[in-house]
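User: I've been trying to design a sequence by hand for this structure and keep getting stuck. Would you show me what you'd pick, starting by listing the structure so we're on the same page?

Assistant: Good idea, let's start from the same input. This is the structure you sent:
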């Protein structure tokens, strides 16, 4: 009973036959304003999401850091392998040089025609040469192990670079495809948006845009279970009823957004 009385606008206006045309037009206009604003908000939310995703895609497409990092690691591993192979070659040469010295010592030792003193000296030298050969051979073995490890690391880094490159290429193909689809969708939505704004008054559009800027892109929010779905504020019975009325522009008392439904 009381609820009927509180529905002021429409029944009151319709009770004056002489003014019926004008109020009905006003009613239709206001009704369509609420509906059009809600529709506009839906389109803008979709457009915002698309723009956000397009920005992410742009950033992802221009981000070559994964490939760059893998390439740097591969380059470092290749340089380490070159250095390890060089060190091994040097160690092998040192062993060979020492071996040659030992051979010469042995030839002199067993060649004959030496005094006992010379033989003693050659014998001592032989011992020293053999001890140093052991050290050099140990170094050679270490260099060989280091070289083999560097080879394994280099192969892993090269494989990682190849797979990172192919993964990036596949991702970029997917992203470019998504980008194209979104841009097509965006163009269609922008056309719909233009049509949607055509029927809304300039003042309301200005208010709507102001709210969008001030309220994280959301100017119009539906009411659910008696509360503003944007901020969660509970509406009083009168506010909820006003929000249900297609003939009124109702703002949430807490967040200020236009609430409806
Ligand atoms: Zn609210």
């Amino acid at each position: 009973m009381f609820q009927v009385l509180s529905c002021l606008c429409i029944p009151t206006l319709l009770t004056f036959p002489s003014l019926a045309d004008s109020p009905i037009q006003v009613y239709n206009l206001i009704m369509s304003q609420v509906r059009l604003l809600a529709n506009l908000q839906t389109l803008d939310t979709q457009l915002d999401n698309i723009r956000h995703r397009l920005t992410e895609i742009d950033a992802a497409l221009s981000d070559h850091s994964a490939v760059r990092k893998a390439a740097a690691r591969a380059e470092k591993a290749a340089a380490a392998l070159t250095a390890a192979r060089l060190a091994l070659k040097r160690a092998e040469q040192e062993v060979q040089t020492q071996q040659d010295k030992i051979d010469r010592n042995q030839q002199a030792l067993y060649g004959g025609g030496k005094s006992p003193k010379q033989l003693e000296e050659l014998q001592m030298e032989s011992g020293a040469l053999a001890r140093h050969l052991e050290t050099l051979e140990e170094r050679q073995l270490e260099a060989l192990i280091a070289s083999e490890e560097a080879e394994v690391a280099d192969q892993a880094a090269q494989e990682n670079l190849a797979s990172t490159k192919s993964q990036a290429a596949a991702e970029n193909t997917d992203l470019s495809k998504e980008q194209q689809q979104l841009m097509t969708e965006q163009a269609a939505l922008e056309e719909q948006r233009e049509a949607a704004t055509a029927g809304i008054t300039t003042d309301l559009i200005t208010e709507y845009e102001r709210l969008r800027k001030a309220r994280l892109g959301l100017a119009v929010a539906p009411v659910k279970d008696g509360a503003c779905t944007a901020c969660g504020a509970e509406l009083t019975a009168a506010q909820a009823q006003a929000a249900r009325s297609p003939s009124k522009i109702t703002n949430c008392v807490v967040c200020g957004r236009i609430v409806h439904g």
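That's my pick for every position. To get oriented when you compare it with your attempt: Helices lie at 2-6, 9-14, 21-61, 65-110, 116-198, 202-214, 237-244. The beta strands are 220-224, 227-228, 250-251, 258-260.
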